[in-house]
Amino acid sequence: MARPETLSGWAVERPGPADSGPLTAVRRPLPEPGPGDLLVSMEACGVCRTDLHLAEGDLAPHRPATVPGHEIVGRVVAAGEAVTAFRTGDRVGGAWLRGTCGTCRYCRAGAENLCPASTYTGWDADGGFADAALVPAAYAYPLPDAESAEKLAPLLCAGIIGYRALRRSALPPGGRLGIYGFGGSAHLAAQVALAEGATVHVLTRSARARELARELGAASVGDAYDAPPEPLDSAILFAPVGDLVPVALAALDRSGTLAVAGIHLTDIPPLSYHRELFYERNLRSVTANTRQDGREFLEAAARIGIRVTTRPYPLSRAPDALADLAGDRIQGAAVLLPDERFRPSG
Fold first, then answer.
1. What CA–CA distance (Å, rounded) separates 337 from 150?
2. What reaction(s) does this enzyme catalyze (predicted)?
3. 160 vs 289: CA distance, rounded Å
4. Which of 73, 282, 308, 328 could make an S-S bridge to 151, C-beta 3.0–4.6 Å?
5. In this predicted structure, what is the pLDDT of residue 343?
6. CATH T-level assignment (fold) for domain 6-154+310-337
7. What is each CA distance from 137 to 75, 84, 116, 154, 338, in whole angstroms?
8. Closest CA to 332 of 141, 181, 180, 148
9. Rounded distance, CA 51 to CA 144, Å?
10. Domain spanning 160-285 has what CATH number?
11. What would you report as the CA-atom Rg of the chain, rounded to the nearest whole angstrom?
12. What are the backbone dihedrals phi and psi of residue 240, each rounded to the nearest 5 degrees, phi first?
C-alpha cells in the first residue's frame, strides 16, 4: 500500500454559511502515527450533518483549522508500534468517537459516549476531508474488503448514530415508529427498524426523501408537520429543527418515547404538559455512541443487507457537498472520493 508524501484536504478556517466558503483547501506534511495510531489512506469519507454544523459555526471549533470528516474508509499505510489488531493493507473505518478516558464512571458502566474526556474525529483532531488521516487503532472498525468504500462510509456515523437513536427510542417489538427527517442517518435506521418488524412512518419536507422512504418500505409518508395515520410507540427526530419536538411528542401514544438524534438542534418552543408530555410520554436526547453500538450496527447492516443511498463527490468538490447538504439537495448521504487532481498549494 503506497504511502502518500503529503496530506491534501480541506480545513474549517472561518466558520460561516456553507455557501460563504468556510472550507479552505490545505496541503500539510503527512502526520506520523503515534504508538497506538493508524495512518489511513482515504478511500471514501461520508459528509455528515455534524460536519456542516462545524463548518457553519453551530458547533464551536475545538481547535483552529481542523479538517472535518468522521466517516472514514481507508487502507492502513502505517501503524504505531503498539498496534497489534491491524496491519498494513487492512481496510478500516474511522468514526466520530475518537477517544475516551476508560476510567471514569461512565466508561466503567459501558456509557463511554458520556465520558467527559471523550474526543471526536474532525472536531478534536483532523478527520477525513483529506487523502489521509490518523485513526486511533482502539477506535477503528475492521471493514470488509468486498464492499464498496462509498457505501461503507455512511455506516460509520449516520448508521451508528441512527442505530443508537433507534435503541434510545425504546421501540417495542413490532412497534410503530415515526421518523422525522429522512437523510443519511434516517434512511439507515429505518431499514434496521423494518428488518426487526416495525411499522415505520416517515415525516419529512423533502419530496425526494419521501420517495426513498416509500421504496424502502415505509407504511406511510408525509410532510414533517403532518400527523401520522396512527399513534406512535416511538419516534426519532433526525431533522435539527426544535419546532418539531412538540409535533413529534403529540404524535406519540401513551408511554411513547421521542429520541432526538442530532448533535445540534434549534430552540425547542414551550411545551404543553397535557398536550405533549402527559400520559408518561418520554423525551430523550442521543449523545454520540459507544464502540459497542458501532459493532452491533455494522453486524446488523451486514446481516440485513442494508441499502445505502449515496451521492458521490470528488474530494476537490467538498465545498459543493456541504452546500448541497445545507440546501437539502442530497437524497441519502453525500460521500467524498479520492481525487488525484486535487493538490492544494501550501
1. 7
2. a primary alcohol + NAD(+) = an aldehyde + NADH + H(+); a secondary alcohol + NAD(+) = a ketone + NADH + H(+)
3. 7
4. 308
5. 82
6. Quinone Oxidoreductase; Chain A, domain 1 (3.90.180)
7. 12, 9, 21, 19, 22
8. 181
9. 25
10. 3.40.50.720
11. 20
12. -80, 50
Which cell numbers hold the place of 124?
478534536
d(CA 92, CA 56): 29
CA–CA dist 237, 211 (Å, integer): 19
Condensed to tens digits (0 to 9), the pLDDT of residues 64-94 reads: 999 999 999 999 999 999 999 999 999 999 9
pLDDT in tens, 229-274: 999 999 999 999 999 999 999 999 999 999 999 889 999 999 999 9
Query: Domain locations in the chain?
Result: 6-154+310-337, 160-285
Position of cell 430523550?
284
